[in-house]
Amino acid sequence: MIFRQLYDQESSTYTYLIAVRDGGEALLIDPVLERVPQYLKLLQELDVKLLLAVDTHVHADHVTGLGALRTETGCTTVMGEQSHADCVSLKVTEGEQLRVDGVRLEVMYTPGHTDDSYSLLLPDRVFTGDTLLIRGTGRTDFQNGDPAAQYDSLFNKLLKLPEDTLVYPAHDYNGMTVSTIGEERRHNPRLQVSSQAEYVELMNALEFASPKLMDIAVPANLACGNKVIPGGVR
Ligand code: FE
């Protein structure tokens, strides 16, 4: 498998490229608009054709590259069925599969950070979006976030995966690149709770500043990165 983990310093976002063979098809997860030229160059260098570009959820901290990639490559843009983004060509839901060449990614609905948050599962690794981060979990205080739903997504879905499943999140702010389900179960401070109520209490006690790009990123992402509305949403 061809696998690349790409990083956008501005938003601390990880973007993942998956392909199988030279001359074959590729998939990108969580592309960042400003990085699209880099992705296009890499796709060309690796001699792969972008078939699918997927966002794990509507991001609040960077503008998506989905629209630009679709324009440039004719790829299919993919999000979960709950997404209100208006240029998504294919909406997926729990239990469906995304296929590139022989690789199948299983679609897991993992709401909580947002109500349109999804994870994507390969046999040995899971792309967790902002549901499960390395030693953290995605904030649940905006964009229809729900800590109770996030508890379910974590404890009843992601943590049920085999312990050695690699965890690739959508962001990292601390220099970490990859973890495993077992490592997170043991060492992630957010996962050391004994009940859903305790998790909800923990999450509700957290205070966050709004992401610096939120007023630009959310409306732009609802338009798949194509229209940035000055002044943002209220
Ligand atoms: Fe997010």
Q: Which descriptor suits the 3D outline?
A: globular
Helix/strand-derived class? Answer: alpha/beta
Which fold name fills CATH's third level, the topology?
Answer: Metallo-beta-lactamase, Chain A
Number of strands: 14
Spell out which ligands are present. Answer: fe (iii) ion
From the alpha carbons, calculate the radius of gyration and give it in angstroms. 17 Å
CATH superfamily membership, which one?
Ribonuclease Z/Hydroxyacylglutathione hydrolase-like
**Cα distance, first to last residue?**
44 Å
Q: Provide the CATH top-level class.
A: Alpha Beta
Low-confidence stretches: 229-234
Strand content: 25-35%
Major beta sheet summary: 6 strands, mixed
Count of spatially separate domains:
1
Helix-strand sequence? EEEHEHEEEEEEEEHEEHHH
How is the topology of this model organized?
Layout: E1 2-8, E2 13-19, E3 25-29, H1 36-46, E4 49-54, H2 66-73, E5 76-80, E6 90-92, E7 97-100, E8 103-109, E9 118-121, E10 125-129, E11 132-133, E12 136-137, H3 147-155, E13 166-169, E14 179-180, H4 181-187, H5 196-204, H6 214-222
Parallel strand pairs: 3-4, 4-5, 5-6, 10-13
Antiparallel strand pairs: 1-2, 2-3, 7-8, 8-9, 9-10, 11-12, 13-14
Helix pairs in contact: 3-5
The chain binds fe (iii) ion (FE).
